Amino acid sequence: MSKLSALTFTRNTGAKHTATVVFFHGSGANGEHMQEWVNLMTKNFKFPHIKVIYPTAPLQPYTPAGGQPSNVWFDRADINQSVAEKLDSVERIGVQVKELIKSEVDGGIPINRIIVGGFSMGGALSFYTGYRWERNLAGVFAFSSFLNNQSVVYQDLCKSSGTKFPPLLQIHGDSDDLVDLTWGRNTFNELKKYGVNGEFHVMSKLGHSINKKGMNIISDWIVNILPDV
């Protein structure tokens, strides 16, 4: 499996870079596409003090696409919340995500000034990142995203009672025909059950997509968690 193939950036617009947001795209897309899509939806995703990174997933065989190569963060047995996770695949991308975060920390950004988030599979990767690998992050956001039933994330959280976890912002369309709203809400409720505090926003008449309203909610939430210093 190849490594992260590209990093697309939206630089901080001010003189000082004091925080970072990592935005993971959905399956089959790339970082540049995610950046363009976000910019089409909102003009508010540029910040004076925050750099936004849009990585591109490795090209690898993807089982739901008949094993054809696709830019995906990890492989899945099926697009179904009841199947088991392919943990070997998840852990391989975890190594690279942790390296990416470490590079920001080594560059002078404290880990509690870094937020991770994403769309669809990118949001799922953010759940693994913030609630399994890097629990000192500033926050996690997810748009149209999921964790499978019996996810290893839930199992790990269950063993960490009393731990403070990054706050969560989760957004989901009520007309999502790929990741049903119930799946997204179940994910949120399970995370909440194990100690994750957050917000769940439902977007009316929205399918498996982002939208302007949701992106503006995310933008405001980011500024609230990562104020200029």
From TrEMBL:
A GO cellular-component term linked to this record: cytoplasm
Domain of life, per lineage: Eukaryota
InterPro entries (UniProt xref): AB_hydrolase_fold (IPR029058), LYPA1-2/EST-like (IPR050565), PLipase/COase/thioEstase (IPR003140)
UniProt-listed Enzyme Commission number(s): 3.1.2.22
Phospholipase/carboxylesterase/thioesterase domain span: 12-222
Keywords: Hydrolase
Pfam families, sorted: Abhydrolase_2
Enzyme superclass (EC): hydrolase
Molecular function, one GO term: carboxylic ester hydrolase activity
Family: Belongs to the AB hydrolase superfamily. AB hydrolase 2 family.
Protein name (record): palmitoyl-protein hydrolase
Record organism: Papilio xuthus
Taxonomic lineage: Eukaryota, Metazoa, Ecdysozoa, Arthropoda, Hexapoda
